[in-house]
């Protein structure tokens, strides 16, 4: 942790007590704490450390649903983003209306809010919450906002409440101390905690202080730091909270490098979607289609290249796809994560080469039950794998589920999964896509050979050329490489 910026007492490695006190001692900060569920855990810190009268204009909680509805309007669910935003908007506007005239020249008004479901008396409740702060970075400034979604992993209510209070103080302090360095803010959110206690699987920055922030990079940062195992954003760049977006939806996932998205990637999704949608318990339902990139893929050449990551994100966006970044290299871990987000069916589509790798026992040496344990976890909830054929460019032979070679000792296991519908062939593929490989597309882009444009969707070709992604340097007027 770096020293706090000017205006807040500078302290190295600040603990929760010091952070709350430093905010209280800053004469500019003045606002409201509104908390629903799990007690007044965040504001309690600011009362406890002293000097709270200089910071806290109001503290409130509306536990009764009718009271909450009367204040903030009706909501379909009380622990949701919609409710949090209603709380932030209303309480912040009240601060401005009531206090701007008297102290607007010297104060930066803020509202912190959370709506949380901690472990209930009878247990069984999903322990999660929405938390946010709406604030002015400078007096009379336009508003800025940070919203996060947290999952509380402690098994005792008191410990969950404690963790909630700490992460809330970190968010308030970070909004004031690090609004000019949002990556430091993300890095500080779990100060005083560990990833075994709190997971943050969504963060969104908006407003004047964060006008240059790309929330896709902030999503990547969450997974890179291990604050979350996965993060998600939509084609338009909006961050998504996975369990809320995937709630009650069947899920179809394609994993890849997507450097770039090629026609074969979309054909694989199309084929799998056609098959998956015909299942009796999927038919007629909206299927959430996702392109997933693993951290191992992003770090294949060492450190993450952020420009390369944004290039991949932009080409996926050009296809209208939702993107999942995950730290779940093993498919059984990905399946377990997705099963937490929905009770509907889950399917993964992959090429024959990836399916063959799935049966390589070297990937499961850390499991006591080896490959059998991994497959037990993977297919636990009747997950479906849809296999896209692989073309041998030298012989013209197709590798499909019917002729896929696995180790002799695993042939019966493979046959069992085939017979019981766990692994399924895709026979509705487009022959024109079989000879397309992303590594060759990248090579053609680098060689300024325009034939690559026929191997990717038109929207992808346009964004690559316009933004000069993947080292594209071809002058469209002369069809030659532009010299530096």
What is the gist of this entry?
The chain has 484 residues and is α/β, with parallel strands linked by helices. 37% of the residues lie in helices and 20% in strands. An 8-stranded mixed β-sheet has the order 8-7-11-10-9-12-13-16, sandwiched between helices. A 6-stranded mixed β-sheet has the order 2-1-3-4-5-6, with helices on both faces. Strands 14-15 form a two-stranded antiparallel ribbon.
Can you walk through the features of this model?
- By secondary structure, the protein is an alpha/beta fold.
- The chain contains 17 helices and 18 strands.
- It has helices at residues 16-24, 41-48, 65-72, 81-103, 157-177, 182-188, 215-225, 242-245, 263-276, 295-298, 306-318, 331-341, 352-358, 370-378, 411-419, 438-446, 458-467; strands spanning 29-36, 56-60, 108-117, 128-136, 143-152, 198-207, 230-233, 239-240, 251-255, 288-294, 322-326, 346-351, 384-388, 390-391, 398-399, 423-425, 474-475, 480-481.
- The chain has an eight-stranded mixed β-sheet with strand order 8-7-11-10-9-12-13-16, with helices on both faces.
- Helix 2 (41-48) crosses helix 5, helix 11 runs antiparallel to helix 17 (458-467) and helix 12 (331-341) runs parallel beside helix 14 (370-378).
């Amino acid at each position: 942790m770096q020293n706090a910026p000017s205006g807040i007492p500078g302290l190295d490695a600040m603990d929760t007590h010091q952070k709350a006190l430093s905010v209280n001692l800053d004469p500019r900060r003045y606002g409201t704490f509104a908390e629903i569920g799990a007690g007044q855990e965040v504001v309690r810190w600011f009362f406890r450390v002293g000097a709270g009268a200089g910071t806290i204009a109001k503290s409130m909680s509306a536990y009764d649903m009718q009271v909450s509805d009367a204040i903030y309007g009706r909501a379909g669910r009380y622990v949701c983003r919609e409710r949090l935003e209603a709380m932030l908007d209303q309480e912040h506007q009240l601060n401005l209306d009531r206090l701007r005239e008297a102290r607007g020249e010297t104060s930066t008004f803020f509202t912190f809010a959370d709506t949380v479901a901690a472990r209930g008396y009878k247990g069984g409740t999903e322990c999660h919450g929405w938390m946010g702060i709406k604030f002015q970075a400078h007096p009379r400034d336009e508003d800025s906002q940070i919203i996060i979604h947290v999952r509380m992993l402690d098994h005792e209510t008191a410990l969950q409440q404690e963790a909630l209070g700490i992460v809330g103080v970190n968010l308030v302090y970070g909004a004031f101390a690090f609004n000019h360095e949002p990556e430091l803010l993300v890095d500080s959110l779990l100060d005083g905690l560990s990833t075994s206690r709190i997971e943050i699987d969504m963060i969104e920055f908006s407003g004047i202080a964060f006008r240059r922030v790309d929330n896709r990079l902030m999503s990547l940062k969450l997974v890179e730091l291990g604050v979350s195992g996965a993060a998600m954003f939509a084609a338009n760049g909006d961050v998504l909270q996975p369990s809320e977006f995937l709630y009650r939806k069947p899920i179809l996932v394609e994993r890849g490098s997507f450097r770039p998205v090629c026609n074969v990637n979309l054909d694989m999704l199309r084929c799998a979607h056609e098959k998956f949608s015909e299942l009796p318990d999927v038919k007629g339902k909206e299927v959430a289609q996702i392109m997933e990139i693993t951290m191992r893929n992003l770090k294949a050449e060492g450190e993450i290249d952020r420009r390369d990551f944004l290039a991949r994100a932009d080409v996926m966006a050009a296809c209208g796809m939702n993107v999942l970044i995950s730290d779940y290299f093993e498919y059984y871990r990905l399946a377990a994560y997705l099963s937490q987000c929905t009770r509907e069916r889950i399917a993964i589509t992959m090429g024959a080469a990836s399916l063959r790798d799935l049966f390589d026992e070297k990937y499961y040496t850390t499991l006591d039950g080896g490959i059998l344990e991994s497959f037990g976890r993977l297919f636990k909830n009747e997950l479906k794998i849809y296999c896209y054929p692989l073309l041998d460019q030298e012989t013209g032979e197709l590798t499909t589920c019917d002729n896929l070679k696995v180790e002799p000792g695993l042939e019966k296991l493979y046959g069992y999964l085939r017979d019981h519908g766990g692994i399924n062939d895709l026979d509705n593929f487009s022959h024109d896509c079989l000879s397309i490989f992303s590594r060759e597309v990248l090579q053609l882009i680098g060689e300024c050979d325009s034939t690559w444009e026929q191997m990717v969707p038109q929207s992808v070709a346009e964004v690559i050329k316009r933004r000069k992604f993947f080292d594209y340097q071809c002058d469209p007027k002369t069809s030659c490489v532009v010299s530096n």
